[in-house]
Inverse folding.
């Protein structure tokens, strides 16, 4: 079982406490985590470039739009097709980011979405 979520820094979310509690709850119940900090768009951007600077999701979206050459549409149905040929590069970059910069979901930027993608790819 997998749980996928991002950090979503908002004061009203009681963010740090709830974020860490969600991680602990998942680990205590043998639930795998695919987390991106600060935003899931980090995973998309890693398809195009290695990115290791602490940033806000708005900056990630701007950089992603530059790479896409178009406005980014959240929940777009064609993102998979746009990114699939770059997936192996994204996995390498995400692993590099995780191994060399963070290994902690509280670090911005960080993502473990690559672990879920690798698991799904093992069934292909």
């Amino acid at each position: 079982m997998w749980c996928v979520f991002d950090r979503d820094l908002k004061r009203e979310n009681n963010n740090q406490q709830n974020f860490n509690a969600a991680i602990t709850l998942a680990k205590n119940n043998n639930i795998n985590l695919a987390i991106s900090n600060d935003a899931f768009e980090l995973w998309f951007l890693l398809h195009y470039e290695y990115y290791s600077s602490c940033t806000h999701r708005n900056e990630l979206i701007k950089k992603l739009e530059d790479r896409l050459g178009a406005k980014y549409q959240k929940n777009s149905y064609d993102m998979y097709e746009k990114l699939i040929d770059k997936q192996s590069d994204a996995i390498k970059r995400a692993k590099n980011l995780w191994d060399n910069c963070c290994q902690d979901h509280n670090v911005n930027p960080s993502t473990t979405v690559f672990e879920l993608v690798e698991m799904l790819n093992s069934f292909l």
User: Anything to note?
Assistant: The chain has a mean pLDDT of 92. Strands lie at 2-6, 32-37, 110-111. The longest strand covers residues 32-37. Residues 50 and 93 are 6 Å apart (CA to CA).
